[in-house]
Each structure stands twice: as structure tokens, then as C-alpha cells.
Amino acid sequence: MCGMSARISNGQGPPDWDGLFEVAQGQQGYFTTRQAAAAGYSPQLLHKYLQNRTVVRVRRGVYRLVHFPASQEEDLVPLWLWSDRVGVFSHETALALQDLSDALPSRVHMTVPADWRHRRLKVPEGLVLHYVDLDEDELAHGAAVPITSPGRTLRDCIDADFAPDLVHQALVEARRRGLISRAEEDELLASLPGRAGAS
Fold it and tell me: Which residues pair with residue 57 across a beta bridge?
């Protein structure tokens, strides 16, 4: 994505479909109005693509290529783009994405920088924001969307009073898969209501 951004960074010249597709490809087929403009696509041209069903509008300022293959996380990408790509999926949402819980959360949880607390935001329906500055080692890598690391995810779920039995199961599974260390497991178990000292 870095090489592409240099190619279309100024929004000058003719529309660059390959550049726009490359951006969308890294975002599960989605792109923003700003990213389209950087690739040379004016609002009028975007409207033409909407009319001929090359793209669809998902929410204000967010579009999707119609024929891009679907993926498991694609419903989360518009929310990530809404956050200007600084949000990190966390809590129960990250637990489900890491296959550490079979429980399907009714709402999507996202952690955004602490200074976002002072912004006047129209938060999308069903999205819960948590305001924390995360360190690099609290992030997972390799997922289609940014998520918190297993250790951070489990800590967040404990602090948010997520069902202790489900968190305990997730802890055991995370340890079994080598996603957390024994020391992390012991520390998290000690803070889990009703499970102090369990192993």
C-alpha cells in the first residue's frame, strides 16, 4: 500500500483505477471518498460508478467494489474506515476474531486514542468505543483489520466484566495455542473473578 500511496498521493491527473483497486484490496474491497479523490476520482465520477453498479455506498464517505470477494471481517472494515484507520477492534469483538470465544457479541467494540474522548462524534449504531492509547505490543498482526493482542483482549474483557466462564475458557485456549505466556495466564487468572489461583 505504501508504494501505491506515493503513486496517487496528490489526486492529480486522470483517474487511476489500478491505484484505487490496490487501496481497496488492502481494505477488503472498501475505500473512502478521500482515498478515491487521491486516485483522481471526483464526486461526479464516483456517482457515475454508483449508477452503473461498479461500486456501492456502504455509509457516508465509504464505498465498496461490488465484485470484490466477501470475507469474514468485511463488515468491520467500514467501521475501521470511519475511525480514520486508527481504531483497533477489541474486547469481545477481538475475542471472537481470534477464535477464542464462540459467543457472538451483540455490539462491536473498538478502542480509539484517548484524545478521541473529547471529539464530537456521531458513532455508528452498534459500535462501542473505548478510549485508550495502545502500545505497539498490545496489537495483533496479520489480521484483515487491526485487533488487540490476545493478552490485551483478555485483560479488556476481564476489566469490562465479560462473562468470567467465557473468559476462563478463552484463557485456557489462548495458552494452549501459545498466544499468551504462562506468566500472562497466571496474572490474568488471578484477576478473574472467582478464579484466583486457578490454573
Answer: 63
